[in-house]
Write a structure and sequence with these properties.
The chain is α/β, with parallel strands linked by helices. The chain is built from 10 helices and 8 strands. The chain has a single domain, classed as Aldolase class I (TIM Barrel).
Length: 320
């Protein structure tokens, strides 16, 4: 796999600083039951990195001693971590909202048949990857049979109340482009998703989030192999919008890896660009318990143009 970090310092991204911390995004491991072309984590079935119980306890300690109200669990498939349910249960006891970045197919994997019911019982917000509403497109990007398994997962969630008005169970979908283009406008694409999924499969959801593909890890390596890396970076930079800087997710989010080290975002985590809270060594989450992070500088590089291009991109979808 081609390294992208050496290529991400040729352009100059503006300096930015942190605001008040609102979300703790925790990557509990890179193991996944899928291998997707666009995955910026290089997740897959053969990855062995899994967050241990002691780091999960540090996450909970941080939540107890902070004003953070959202725990965003990601992976890989976060549900494959043996401490996933423990984190959910304990965070909910603290009154913290929990988000699960779910690939949908995990809901039908052996040993996880009761997962959807668990998520509903603890009112976990599900953010589910579905890069298209067409079967061929999804299977091309994520693997054969993934679309049908994803629809089955969505129906299972709908049956429990997810995506239904008045249920309080939130189900949001995530769209990624298949190639070297920026996501289309979020609102009309959401309408198209809703119309198609409702008519063809009886599926309901709350919101659609559109995310740009980041020129790092698996997707970045593919761009290099195809000779498209520089062109894609030029597209991102030419589409830069200064007004998106105010809303980029790294201003209010802290990313934690499976070992407990902290980063300004999940993309920096994958590039091994740690947050600069201590110039001498990498900072662990345990070192930040009880500390105010507002005003601290954010580590940036050229991949940050992916979050500020066009309508903007974040874990919550478009910024504009």
């Amino acid at each position: 796999m081609h390294a992208t970090l050496p290529l991400l310092h040729s352009r100059e991204f503006p300096a930015i600083a942190r605001k008040r911390l609102e979300t703790l995004q925790v990557n509990v491991g890179y193991k996944c039951n899928q291998t997707c072309v666009h995955c910026h984590v290089n997740a897959g079935p053969n990855r062995t990195e899994v967050m241990p119980r002691e780091v999960a306890d540090t996450v909970l300690a941080f939540l107890r001693d902070s004003d953070v109200k959202t725990l965003d669990l990601t992976g890989g498939a976060p549900e494959l971590n043996p401490h996933f349910r423990y984190l959910v249960v304990e965070a909910r006891k603290l009154g913290v909202k929990v988000m699960d970045r779910c690939n949908l197919t995990i809901l039908s994997e052996p040993g996880h048949e009761d997962l959807a019911g668990f998520l509903a019982a603890h009112q976990v917000e599900v953010v589910a990857s579905l890069p298209c509403y067409l079967e061929d497109n999804v299977d091309r990007q994520r693997g054969k049979g993934v679309f049908s398994a994803s629809i089955a997962g969505l129906r299972k969630l709908n049956a429990l109340g997810y995506g239904r008005p008045g249920s309080g169970l939130v189900l949001n979908l995530v769209y990624n482009p298949q190639g070297t283009s920026l996501p289309p406008a979020q609102a009309p694409l959401e309408d198209a998703y809703r119309s198609r999924l409702r008519a063809a499969y009886g599926v309901e959801f709350n919101r659609l989030f559109t995310l740009a593909n980041m020129p790092i890890a698996r997707f970045g390596s593919t761009l290099i192999s195809k000779g498209q890396f520089n062109a894609y970076m030029t597209l991102l930079q030419d589409s830069y919008r200064e007004e998106n800087l105010e809303q980029v997710m790294c201003r209010t989010l802290l990313s934690v890896d499976w070992q407990g080290y902290v980063y300004d975002c999940d993309f920096n985590q994958m590039l091994e660009l740690p947050a600069r809270f201590d110039r001498r060594h990498r900072t662990r989450l345990a070192d930040l318990v009880g500390k105010d992070l507002a005003g601290r500088p954010i580590v940036v590089a050229d991949h940050c143009f992916g979050c500020t291009a066009g309508q903007g991109s974040s874990c919550g979808g478009a910024l504009a």
